[in-house]
């Protein structure tokens, strides 16, 4: 190509906007680029198996020989995220030799602060309810005593409902709890306790009907918090309390 032709070509490129050199050598855009080898990765290691939270809970619960050891095992259990947001573990309250064991769903704000299940307004109502049939959490006589625990030992954030996976992983601890206490009767307070113990929910249909959970006669009842919101349901609850009293006599 002669000078005039190259000059005309350069002027045409400048007119098109190609007025700045990027590289110090021309690039042949028609040439096939060299294949780029992917970066070498280190040899793959065998992935560590994920921990089975339920199996870990069952192993820890089974190894507990008494209530103190069971509580320590629950304190040490690290697979439930609820533990990170709660102030403390809420294990139980009442007389461990009681014939009646009450199972609730999970601690609320007051329980999280005090470290005991069923305190605050709902706890006061529960105490009042059972006092009318001669049962008390502070009673030393096992015939008149109550023992109280929850499905979950840690408070869910904002008192939300327990999640199924949370209940599943903590169920082995509850099962062992019942085995160690050996109550004659269980009271399942509310929907979530019924779901954990009986695999059923729908407390308005379940309440007052005796079932069997963990080998023990079990009576579903309305949760005291529900009764505070729905006082007209106290009539059914009184009937359930009388049924419990009669069952204890029998």
Describe this structure in words.
The chain has 250 residues and is an alpha/beta fold. It has helices spanning 3-15, 53-63, 67-76, 82-85, 109-114, 120-131, 164-181, 191-198, 203-206, 224-229, 234-249, and strands spanning 93-94, 100-104, 146-150, 185-189, 211-213, 216-221. A 6-stranded mixed sheet has the order 1-3-2-4-6-5, with helices on both faces. Helix 2 (53-63) runs antiparallel to helix 3 and helix 2 (53-63) runs parallel beside helix 7. It starts with a helix and ends with a helix. The model has no long low-confidence stretch (mean pLDDT 90).
Describe this structure in a few short sentences:
This protein is 43% helix and 10% strand. With 250 residues, it is an alpha/beta fold. Helix 2 runs antiparallel to helix 3 and helix 2 runs parallel beside helix 7 (164-181).
Features:
single chain; 250 residues; alpha/beta; six-stranded mixed β-sheet; 6 strands; 43% helix; 10% strand; elongated
What is the overall silhouette?
A: elongated
What's the multimeric state? single chain
The number of distinct helices, counting runs of at least 4 residues, comes to 11
Q: Give the termini separation.
A: 116 Å
According to DSSP, the number of beta strands is 6
Secondary structure layout:
Layout: H1 3-15, H2 53-63, H3 67-76, H4 82-85, E1 93-94, E2 100-104, H5 109-114, H6 120-131, E3 146-150, H7 164-181, E4 185-189, H8 191-198, H9 203-206, E5 211-213, E6 216-221, H10 224-229, H11 234-249
Parallel strand pairs: 2-3, 2-4, 4-6
Antiparallel strand pairs: 1-3, 5-6
Helix pairs in contact: 2-3, 2-7
């Amino acid at each position: 190509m002669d000078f005039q032709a190259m000059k005309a070509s350069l002027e045409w490129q400048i007119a098109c906007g190609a007025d700045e050199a990027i590289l110090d050598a021309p690039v042949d855009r028609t040439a096939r680029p060299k294949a780029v080898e992917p970066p070498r990765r280190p040899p793959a290691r065998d992935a560590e198996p994920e921990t089975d939270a339920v199996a870990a809970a069952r192993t820890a619960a089974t190894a507990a020989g008494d209530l103190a050891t069971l509580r320590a095992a629950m304190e040490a259990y690290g697979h439930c995220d609820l533990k990170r947001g709660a102030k403390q573990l809420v294990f139980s309250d009442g007389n461990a030799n009681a014939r009646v064991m009450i199972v609730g769903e999970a601690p609320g704000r007051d329980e999280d602060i005090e470290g005991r299940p069923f305190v605050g307004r709902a706890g006061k109502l529960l105490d009042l309810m059972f006092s009318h049939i001669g049962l008390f959490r502070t009673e030393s006589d096992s015939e008149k005593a109550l023992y109280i625990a929850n499905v979950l030992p840690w408070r869910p954030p904002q008192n939300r409902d327990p999640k199924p996976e949370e209940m599943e992983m903590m169920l082995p601890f509850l099962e062992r709890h019942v085995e160690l206490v050996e109550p004659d009767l269980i009271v399942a307070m509310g929907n979530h306790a019924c779901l954990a113990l009986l695999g059923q929910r729908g407390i308005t249909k379940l309440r007052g009907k005796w079932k069997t959970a963990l080998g023990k006669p079990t009576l579903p009842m309305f949760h005291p918090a529900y009764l505070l919101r729905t006082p007209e349901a106290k009539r059914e609850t009184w009937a359930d309390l009388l049924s419990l009293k009669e069952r204890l006599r029998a």
